[in-house]
Amino acid sequence: MTESFLLFPDPAPPEVVRCLDLADYPWTAQDLTGASQLDDNWTGAIIDLSNDPEDGWQLCKRLKRGDLPVEPVLVLVSGNQLPDMQLRDDLYDDFMITPFHPLELEARLRHLLWRAGRGARPEVLSYGPLTINIDTYQAEVDNRKMDLTFMEYELLKFLTSNPGRVFNRETLLSRVWGYEYYGGARTVDVHIRRLRTKLGEEHAHLIQTVRSVGYKLGQAR
Amino acid sequence: MVSHHSCDVLIYVERQISYVLRTVEERKVKLIRFWFTDVQGQLKSMAISPVELEVALSEGVHFDGSAIDGFSRVQESDVLARPDPATFQILPWADGGTTARMFCDIYNPSGTPFEGDPRNILRRNLVKAQEKGHSFYVAPEMEFFYFKDGNSPRPEPIDSGGYFDLTTADVASDLRRKTISVLESMGIPVEYSFHEDAPSQHEIDLRYTDAMSMADKIMTFRLVVRELALEQGLFASFLPKPIEDVQGSGMHLHLSLFDNDDKNLFHDPEAQYGLSETGQQFMAGLLHHAPELTAITNPLVNSYKRLVPGFEAPGWITWAQNNRSSLIRVPITKRDKESSTRIEYRSPDPTCNPYLAFAVLMAAGSKGIEEGYDLPKEVAQNTSKLSNGEIDTLGVKSLPRSLNEALEAMEKSELVHNAVGEHVFEWFLRNKRSEWQAYKSHVTQWELDTYLPNW
How many domains does chain A have? Predict the structure, then answer.
């Protein structure tokens, strides 16, 4: 399994999710019980304390001093929670006040990872004949460069980074588009159709329609 | 503080821009074409080199709008073209894939959207529809002719093929196949294609998309068809009636509305022909306002030579489930294909400005829904075969029979005025009136042949 950020709580705060998706950081949402059972290699943790500070701080404690060592840990607090941070300096590596600017979150994560001596972004995604270079935004199928528009590229990248997972249209709209569009949920069908056309006859089947649910790319590994 | 929403948009735009810049670098793109459309529906283009691209993406490009049809207002003629990075696309046929294009939105120097920009006009209408939860989908049937070249006094067909002909004589089929493959590599999916009734006439049907992408696609389509024909030393024409005794080229439009839950608002399995009350009201809106829209959907003097009885083009404002002489057809849809419920509006031709045409069609249909228009009776008879008496009994009205009649109907239309805005409304009427005047005073060959020997 690829490394990912641990997000607390589960379900994860949508504004954090959108920001991580846009920045190409994989993530997994966990609550306190779920996190205890995991032994993955985490890239780091983002703990939102604004709704459930008790479990949140509990989790921080285990991440920083306990049985689940994860580094770095970024906590999100609301302004009126600032006093709670006293005497808890050892429970996090950095903090941010909510609501936050998405670019700030991205910048802090980048900096934290740099300080920890690693970059966490996968540079090349691949599945079967498909290769996507995240740094250069270039997608290839069978070593043939694909001429994609930005949204086609984003959709293909999203599906490829979650092989075998079925996404419904609403999820794809909110995770891939994330903002205004004029076409409604049909927009997804239209883009899937275009992607298949551009993949060419031979590889169009890579993207499968799951009847009355949505779409998936390939099989889970 | 900036809202989360606008932050999201900002980040998207930033990433789209970096996608464009990086792709230009990686793919060694040498030229980026900035595309926009004038009020007449002609594609306009400015070429930008990769060096200028970054600034052009963030600031836009100023140019003199008075050089563009329908943009001209001499006292304040400067406008700003801002490329839409979401439409960045390498042109696979041009210069070995080293040319790319982006569609532009046009702004006033003050930063407000420019009233004369057709893309802006369509967007305004679509946003209004979206506020009511309506997304407008369109699928066009594009018809055109291939001719030997564009310079001969009369267009010369390159074959005598008929409907669904597949013979070695069909020299154009290779060209059509190549055109389709270029269209598909640009993400313009083709549903069907075939040789049409008339010699040298072809049809390519596009798969439905939202109205804005479709208008962009039609602009791209017209260019691709013409450029690829030129490569073969041929000439492709979208003129509605290039040859007088065969059927002309139309652009039938399949229209549907979807709501935010992805439900086809035209679909109701219990209703007649599976067409919901909303669908019927939308259709009633189109029928009611059809004369006012026709100058936009059929903008040339020549357009009205296609809309004559006997050539499978509509002349009367009627609807039917399956009648090729009616203005609107309700195609039969398969039982389990809810999403394909639609109506087919058959008068438009491929010389119209697709942005303006979609804007007025959407406005007329919406008006029908808002006001709960009643749908007139279905007319199943072939109207081109009916006598004047029979037409009177049916109480059926005619589409405008000339550009002049269409302009008269448009001039009185509040609906079209509101849909396209004052700037375009005024310019379009003025420009088309002078086109009509020029035509009216022209002495034709027909007149000379018919009258000169005897008078």
Answer: 2
Q: Are B372 and B264 in contact (CB under 8 A)?
A: no
The reply to whether B106 and B140 lie within a common domain is no
Average pLDDT over residues B74-97: 85
Parallel, antiparallel or unpaired: strands A94-98 and A73-78: parallel
- DSSP, collapsed to helix, strand or coil, labels residue B430 as helix
CATH code of B424's domain: 3.30.590.10
B260 touching chain A per CB within 8 A: yes
Q: How many domains does chain B have?
A: 2
- The residue range of the domain holding A169 is 124-217
pTM for the whole thing?
Answer: 0.82
**B336 — contact with chain A (CB < 8 Å)?**
no
Which of A103, A154, A186 best probes binding to B when mutated, by most B CB atoms within 10 angstroms? A186
B168 pLDDT exceeds 50?
A: no
ipTM of the complex: 0.73
- Residues within 8 A of B (CB atoms), A 31-60 only: none
In terms of residue numbers, what domain contains B309?
A: 123-447
* Residue B316, in any domain of the structure: yes
Q: What CATH number does the domain containing B101 carry?
A: 3.10.20.70
Examine residue A72 and say whether the peptide bond preceding it is cis (omega within 30 degrees of 0).
Answer: yes
Helices (H), B168-275: 172-185, 211-231
Percentage of chain A surpassing pLDDT 70?
90
Q: What are the tokens at B185? A: 């590599």
A138 touching chain B per CB within 8 A: yes
